[in-house]
UniProtKB/TrEMBL annotation:
Keyword list, A-Z: 4Fe-4S, ATP-binding, Cytoplasm, Cytoskeleton, Iron, Iron-sulfur, Metal-binding, Nucleotide-binding, Nucleus
Signal peptide: none
Organism taxonomic ancestry: Eukaryota, Metazoa, Chordata, Craniata, Vertebrata
Highest taxon above the source species: Eukaryota
Name of the featured protein: Cytosolic Fe-S cluster assembly factor NUBP2
InterPro entries: Mrp-like_CS (IPR000808), Mrp/NBP35_ATP-bd (IPR019591), NUBP2/Cfd1_eukaryotes (IPR028600), P-loop_NTPase (IPR027417), YlxH/NBP35 (IPR033756)
Length: 262
């Protein structure tokens, strides 16, 4: 699908935040989704660019799987999540014929699509563009950096699970940020203990405090620990707005505090 040219589309993006992690499955898409929703509920205009081309999960998490993107004279129109059109999402998931289709592309084709996602999507003015990336450091990261750098300073938020193996990979991600010239706005520890819904006691399912220690050693801010929360998991499965619907759920305070600190 070729997009109409949309010169200068990303020029009105205020603040770009790349969400990074060393490992898959630690909650990068979850943090991207909930951060976007929390910023939206704080009155911000938010775009989400899903460059996890081989595992695009954000359309489902936001309940817009199967929607189509259209073209207008300014380029591709992203999918709007809310009626007021203040949360815009672009993902390869909208271009696949079947949600389970696999993207088996070499680097140059992935890079070209990411460039189009940045330059040929009619993002309009945005306060924040949240960029969900694949785990590690890949062609997708390099393409996103190259495409976005002319328009805005680039910030990074690194997500880790508390276990040592995940924290070790996150440390490599921080090294990548330094080499790539990204400002790290902080580290988030996700899946950090389980709060019992009956007695509210917190059980450390994995080891504890790895994210905070990593942030301290790297000299970057620690933005908070998000507990394992079955209600959050269900909301993501069902494409619901966790931030609006479940303010008394265990993960809510940490997620909204993170949004206030970015
Ligand atoms: P990644 O993007 O790093 O691969 P995801 O955000 O897709 O990871 O998360 C993996 C799975 O874990 C998802 O099914 C998600 O619903 C679940 N999950 C992530 N964070 C939490 C949390 N804090 N509480 C409960 N479930 C979570």
């Amino acid at each position: 699908m070729e997009a109409a040219a949309g010169p200068g589309n990303p020029a009105g993006i205020g603040h770009v935040i790349l969400i990074l992690s060393g490992k898959g499955g630690v909650g990068k898409s979850t943090i991207s989704t909930e951060l976007a929703l929390a910023l939206h509920h704080a009155g911000k205009k938010v775009g989400i660019l899903d460059v996890d081309l081989c595992g695009p999960s954000i359309p489902r998490m936001l309940g817009v799987q199967g929607r189509a993107v259209h073209q207008c004279s300014a380029g591709w129109v992203p999918v709007f999540v809310d009626r007021e059109q203040t949360v815009a999402l672009m993902s390869v998931g909208f271009l696949l014929e079947q949600p389970d289709d696999a993207v088996v592309w070499r680097g140059p084709k992935k890079s070209a699509l990411i460039k189009q996602f940045v330059c040929d999507v009619a993002w309009g003015p945005l306060d924040y563009l949240i960029v969900d990336t694949p785990p590690g450091t890949s062609d997708e990261h390099m393409a996103a950096l190259e495409a976005l750098r002319p328009y805005s300073p680039l910030d990074a938020l690194v997500v880790t699970a508390p276990q040592a193996v995940s924290v070790g990979d996150a440390r490599r991600e921080l090294t990548f940020c330094r080499k790539a010239g990204l400002r790290v706005i902080g580290v988030v520890e996700n899946m950090s203990g389980f709060v019992c819904p009956h007695c509210t006691e917190c059980t450390s399912v994995f080891s504890q405090g790895g994210g905070e220690e990593l942030a301290r050693l790297a000299g970057v801010p620690f933005l908070g620990s998000v507990p394992l929360d079955p209600q959050l998991a269900r909301s993501l499965e069902e494409g619901r707005d966790f931030i609006r619907e479940f303010p008394s759920s265990a993960a809510f305070p940490a997620l909204s505090a993170i949004a206030q600190r970015v």
